[in-house]
Amino acid sequence: MPFDTLPARSGLGLKAQHYAQIIAEKPELGFFEVHAENYMGEGGPPHRYLAAICEHYPLSLHGVGLSIGGEQPLDRDHLFRLRALVERYRPASFSEHLAWSSHDEGYLNDLLPVPYTPKTLDRVVAHIDEVQQILGRRMLLENPSTYVLFEESTIDEVAFLAAIAERTGCGLLLDVNNVMVSAVNHRLDPIAYIDRFPVHHVGEIHLAGYDETTDDAGERLLIDAHGSRVRPDVFELYRYTIAHTGALPTLIEWDNNVPAFDVLMDEVRLVDEVLDGTLNRRLAS
Amino acid sequence: MTSQHQFIRALTDPAQPVPVGLVSPRGTADTKRFAVYRNNVHVSLVGAIAARFPVTRQLVGEEFFTGMARLYVGQNKPRGPVLLHYGDSFPDFIGQFPPAAGLPYLPDLARLEAAWTETYNAADAAVLMAADLNTIAGDALAKLDLALAPSTRLVRSSFPVGSLWSAHQTTPVTIPALSGSECVLLTRPQAEVRLTIIPPAAFTFLKAIEQGRNLGRAAEAVLADFPDFDPGAALVGLAGLGVFAALDKEHVDV
Fold first, then answer.
1. A119, A164, A280, B60: which could join B64 in a potential S-S bond, CB 3.0 to 4.6 Å?
2. Structural domain span for residue A225
3. Which of B26, B73, B86, B121 has the highest number of chain A CBs within 10 A, making it the mutation to test binding with A?
4. Distance in Å, alpha carbon of A267 to nearest chain B alpha carbon
């Protein structure tokens, strides 16, 4: 039976090396998330395992290749593949990124940044309208992590995302690690970003670990790496966010150097403590 | 204004400067910041190739593989966002890559790995069971057109690439003798991919069936080159490996 909404619990990215353990042990977990593009093969073990896992857990379908911020029209074939996947698995949530990844030269497999101007706002709004129309459902749009700024930008990122949500009716996916990465990289205050974020549109939160390097001037440059535990400052920002928003479905993303499943479950327990804590505070008040 | 075309040109050519209009919070062009995007593109695409060709990577080592894959990725961007079959032309690229010339079996080994992914992701379909052949009336069997299952792949090499691949599925790896040709069959009988080294006669038989010959004509084609070929035994053995698609209803005696 399909699940209609993601529960306000912690979830994990589903990795092929953990399929068998998950099916055998059925760990206590709010939901699983998969990258849509990894399930666009016609058949075989990935679909068999995903179908089995969807019998026990709500599914979040997370696209990485739609290129919603692209200058070019959306790839219709890809949208139809996505629709087929949505119809097959009836996920509780579908989300994508405020980014672009495709151009004439091909697909670049990275989430590239978009300038924030009235013109790019119109383009992104039109693309999201098209996605929601073809999929026949509301989507969530994720805030990006970025390493450069565009001189031409005239709208700040939070206002840009809020305007998209207002105009398209889409929800937002608040990636707290991305907030920290972009805030440090662009010398912004992450708390102020959360305070201004239109939290009533948020349908899911993402957490992940970042890496760290320096830029040409030797200043801190954070990289959205998804290859480690959630860093302490991001976890603090998450506590702050949840105190502000109330409990929300929260995904731990770990896509590179994927550890043993039990390590991921340790992260899950830390997130659940925060989510339980906010419930307890509300019950006591 | 920075167009996405300019962005990509600078992204894919490290000799190009950071595109005008992309800045750090100090308002300056910053090479190391832009390099994060360059690096992400390369690392993620090289990672996709490494994930599809794990034995090729083991055979040449991490450093050699990454260098070779970076060159490939630089010249061959994926056409779309589904990367399951990205790298179809990587085996041919290896065959043209002079530093790999000392490992003549490497392109075929990579071809086998590319085929393995195709078998893994192929459409689910019912397969012909050996017992199904009993439902075919005697004289109809020779005229029967069988289709290969969507997951069936055939790889022939002048090198023992099936044995070489199999040797890398366990640790420690014991490299087999690297001489002698091999015919390799990939199927997905019980949901998981299965690799079987088959005799050249069986390979020729399957190729004839794949080309649309009925069972009788396919068997004749094999017997011309392999007089000892036993088509009945081959058919039962191959069906047991899940090679053939299930029969259409019209072929089945009810």
1. B60
2. 10-284
3. B121
4. 25
- Interior CA angle at B247 toward B242 and B248, to 5°? 145
Contacts with A148 from chain B: Cβ below 8 Å:
18, 22-24, 30, 33-34, 37
How many domains does the structure of chain A reveal? 1
Cβ distance A37 to B37 less than 8 Å, yes or no, reads no
Cβ contact, residue pair A75, B1, below 8 Å? no
Question: Looking at chain B, which residue has its C-alpha nearest residue A79?
Answer: B81
The closest CB to that of A75, out of B1, B48, B80, belongs to B80
What's the confidence (pLDDT) of residue B179? 85
Average pLDDT estimate for B161-170 = 95
A4 lies in some domain: no
Q: Give the helix ranges, DSSP H, for A62-220.
A: 76-89, 118-135, 157-168, 176-185, 190-196
Inside any domain, residue A91: yes
- Nearest CB to A45 within list B24, B84, B191: B191
Q: Is A2 a member of any domain?
A: no
d(CA B71, CA B59): 18
CATH number for the domain that contains residue A67: 3.20.20.150
Residue A59 pLDDT > 60, yes or no?
yes
Q: Out of A41, A45, A65, whose CB is closest to B81?
A: A65
pLDDT at A1: 41
Residue A263, CA atoms < 13 Å, CB-side half-sphere: 11
What share of chain A in percent tops pLDDT 90? 93
Residues whose CB falls within 8 Å of the CB of residue A221, separated by 6 or more in sequence, listed in order: A147, A184, A185, A212, A213, A214, A215, B32, B33, B36
**How many interchain CB pairs under 8 A, A with B?**
147
Nearest to B32 among A47, A107, A216 (CB): A216
Residue A173 lies in a domain: yes
Q: How far apart are CA A206 and CA A181, in angstroms?
A: 13
* CA B171/CA B54 separation, integer angstroms: 14
Domains in chain B, please, with CATH?
1-103 (no CATH), 123-254 (3.90.930)
